[in-house]
Task: structure prediction
Amino acid sequence: MSLLLRRSAFAIAIALLTSPYAAAADAVGEPVAAEAAPQQDGWVFTVAPYFWAAGLQGDVGLFGRQPVDIDADFTDIFDNLRFGGMVVGEAHNGAWGILADLVYVKIEVEQTVERTVLGVPLALAGDIQTSSFTGTIMGEYRVVAEPSATMDIMAGVRIWSVDTDISLALTAGGSPIAGLSGSDGDTWVDPMVGLRGRIDLNPSWYLTGWGMVGGFGAGSDFGWDILGGLGHQFNDRVSVVGGYRALGVDYENDGFVFDAVQHGPVLGAVFRF
Result:
C-alpha cells in the first residue's frame, strides 16, 4: 500500500471519527424511522446479508521473497471472484449494543509479473490466489439518539485470517520452462475503534455508514475500514442499502506480507426484529 494511499485513508477515517454526522452506518444496524422515539426499551436485533464486489489491490508476499503487486479491480470481480460471503448482525438495547461483521472472499488473478534475474528483466506468467476472512466484533455506545439521526461510538477487535498461493512461470512458445510456486498464510487480531451512524432524509430514504481504524502495531501496522451507503426503508422491519466500502490493512510477519486494499460496491438487505 503506498504511503499516499495510507495517509489518505487515515485522514478520511479520522474525519469520520471526529465528525458528528459524517459516516453513518446501518447497513449494519437497526433502521430508525423518522417518527421513532430517540431510545427504545428492550432488545432490537438486525441481520444484514450483503454482497460486496470487492476488488483487491496491493502487495502480497511469501517466505520473505519479493512481494507480488496484485491488481484485481472490482470491475473484473466476476472474472476473479471464486467465492464470497458477507453478513452483518447487531443487537441493541437502549444506548448499548454489539455488532458483528463477517466477510469471506476468495480471489484468483492471472497477470504478468515483472522480475529481474541476473540483471535480465523477465515477464513471468503469474497466478495469485488469495482467500481472506475478517471477523469484526464491536461494542457500541449511542452518543446521538435523535428521531432522525443516530450515532454510535465503537470499540472492539477484528480477526484476520489470510492464505495466499502464488505461482510464477517462465514460458516459451506458450509452454512453461521454469517456475516457482508457494503457499503461505497467517492469522492475527487487530484492535479497532470507530463511529457508525445514520441520518434519515425522509421516512423512506436514509444515509448510512461507518469509519474504523485499528491495528496500531498490535497485529497489523495499520488497518482501516470505510463504508457509506444510501438506504430505502420499505417498512419498520425491512430496508435495502447500496453503497461503497473500502477496507485496507498493512501486515507483515515472518516473511508473510499482506499490504492490500479491498474495495468495491455493496448491496444488501437489512432485516429488523
